[in-house]
Design brief:
Layout: H1 2-36, H2 40-74, H3 79-85, H4 90-99, H5 104-114, H6 120-129, H7 134-141, H8 143-168, H9 174-177, H10 195-213, H11 220-242, H12 248-253, H13 259-288, H14 297-303, H15 309-322
Helix pairs in contact: 1-11, 2-10, 2-11, 2-13, 4-5, 4-6, 4-8, 5-6, 6-8, 7-8, 7-15, 10-11, 11-13
């Protein structure tokens, strides 16, 4: 009888947690989507930010996740076994993965840290070395400079990580982050029905993102196509994320779903928070009337922003201003 009561209580807890999470995500997603339809100059700023976030970040996140998750799904590579045999090299591996263009390497390392498989120093290494999707931008503008930065990032990230592990030990903060992951198995969600629509927008979006990274000028017709694809892609990503019953952590760690669903779900949650970061920055600039070229207060705005937008903005500023100086 007690076992039955415990099972019912556990099931009720899962249902309430899922419903509560879905409600919060739906509210936040609705808030973001409501901003898209604002009028006037403010609405233009919002829509432009979403377009930039999708074209400059989201499509590259999706591409790198296709690579990393594809390797994980299509091969019999055992990550847990590999990490147990290479413990002495975790920091260097993490720094290398962080330096790889795109957010995929960083996402993989962070999820392994959350599950207690790598040290805090490895986490520091990957976050120190990574440039995220801004790497594509700097490679397109100045390949030599980009490769130099990658090398410096790996070296600095590795040194930082090993120092952290030397001072605190490899078990530092593991007691708080090593959690037992138990998820309700969901092979397919409602939003999975939109996966092929997402892919239909992603493919041309990725091609357009590459062209934008190489600063190729568009004709009015192609510019209209870019606006349509990026706007639709951003809106669809937020819509799918807000109605996805899976948590963000489950999106990036649960392997019960297929390759496409894993990539789409993970990209959508990254896209939502990247767009949020872009909007925080742009809304701040809009209402404070700050000028990037003359006022340094914007620098502190993105330092705390937990997304790729800070890296993208840094590389854009380098390409727009620093080289001219």
């Amino acid at each position: 009888m007690n076992a039955l009561i415990n099972a019912i209580n556990e099931k009720t807890k899962i249902i309430l947690e899922n419903d509560g999470r879905l409600l919060k995500k739906s509210f936040f997603g609705l808030l973001l989507l409501s901003l898209v339809f604002q009028g006037g100059e403010f609405g233009e700023v919002i829509r432009s930010s979403m377009i930039d976030a999708y074209i400059q970040v989201s499509v590259f996140v999706g591409f790198t996740l296709f690579v990393f998750i594809g390797l994980d799904s299509l091969t019999k590579f055992d990550v847990k076994n590999f990490l147990s045999k290479t413990q002495k090299f975790h920091v260097g591996i993490a720094a290398f993965l962080g330096a790889i263009p795109g957010c995929g390497g960083a996402i993989i390392v962070v999820t392994q840290y959350i599950q207690g498989r790598i040290s805090f120093g490895s986490l520091v290494a990957v976050l120190t070395a990574t440039m995220g999707d801004a790497a594509f931008l700097i490679l397109a503008i100045e390949p030599t400079t980009g490769l130099l930065i990658f090398g410096i990032g790996i070296i600095v990230g590795s040194i930082s990580g090993y120092i952290i592990d030397f001072i605190h030990g490899i078990n530092f903060m593991q007691s708080e982050t090593k959690i037992k992951v138990e998820f309700e198995k969901i092979n397919k969600t409602f939003v999975s029905n939109f996966n092929f629509f997402w892919l239909f927008l992603f493919i041309p979006g990725f091609i357009l993102g590459i062209l934008v990274a190489f600063q190729i000028e568009f004709s009015p017709a192609y510019n209209s196509l870019l606006v349509f694809v990026a706007s639709a892609g951003a809106i669809l990503s937020i819509f799918m994320w807000s109605l996805n019953p899976l948590s963000d952590f489950q999106c990036s760690t649960d392997k019960s779903r297929g390759l496409l669903s894993r990539v789409v779900d993970t990209t959508n949650f990254v896209t939502t928070w990247v767009i949020s970061g872009f909007l925080v920055f742009e809304i701040f600039m809009y209402f404070t009337v700050c000028s990037i070229s003359s006022n340094s207060i914007w620098f502190f705005t993105w330092l705390w922003t937990a997304s790729c937008c800070s890296n993208v903005l840094s590389k854009w500023l380098y390409s727009s201003f620093c080289r001219a100086w």
